[in-house]
Amino acid sequence: MNALSGCVASLTLSTETLQSTIDTLSASVEDYPRVCKILSSNRHFEVISARELQTAQTLLSETIQPETDRLLRETEKAVHKLELKERKLIADAELLETRIANSLKTKASAAAAAEAARKAEIKEEEEREDENEKETAKNEEVLRRLKAQRQRLAYAVERLELEKRQKEMLVKKSLSYSHV
């Protein structure tokens, strides 16, 4: 009976060890889906060739440069308009000073003629500036369309050259297989 009690004790110990192992394994496996998700790698970036990168940079530059130039021209025109406005305001201020001085001296008629002449000059200059702006805007639109057309044609030529190279490769392959 002593021999059997030793076997029973050994079996009980083995069962307890096995149960402990199962509990530990269950706890470890329970977190397995989360660990798989964490360790899975996602491809966030695509590797491209240097030529594709250079083409994209060129395209981006060609897209941004005209817009930058246009904004710069608009800014220069706005500054020029503000300068004209400043000159006009200065002329108006001088005119008012002249009017005050002339009203005290009763020479208002000469000042009115000078004011009219200055205003006429400034108005003529503003009208010329507006005409120049309209013409420039038309020219810019034509230039933008021509650049876009040139870019489309360049892309079409590049695509056709690529197709030509692919067809040449197919012809070379078919010729090499026909000789075999």
From TrEMBL:
Compartment(s) where it occurs, according to its Swiss-Prot or TrEMBL record: Chromosome, Centromere, Kinetochore; Cytoplasm, Cytoskeleton, Spindle; Nucleus
Give the principal location in a single coarse category: nucleus
Annotated InterPro entries = DASH_Spc19 (IPR013251)
Biased segments, Acidic residues type: 123-133
Key word DNA damage present in the record?
A: no
Task: Identify the stretch(es) annotated as Disordered.
Answer: 121-141
Keywords, ordered alphabetically? Centromere, Chromosome, Cytoplasm, Cytoskeleton, Kinetochore, Nucleus
Q: Give GO cellular component annotations, separated by semicolons.
A: DASH complex; spindle microtubule
Q: Name one Pfam family in it.
A: DASH_Spc19
Gene Ontology BP terms: attachment of spindle microtubules to kinetochore
UniProt lists the family membership as follows: Belongs to the DASH complex SPC19 family.
Stated name of the protein: DASH complex subunit SPC19
Natural source organism: Orbilia blumenaviensis
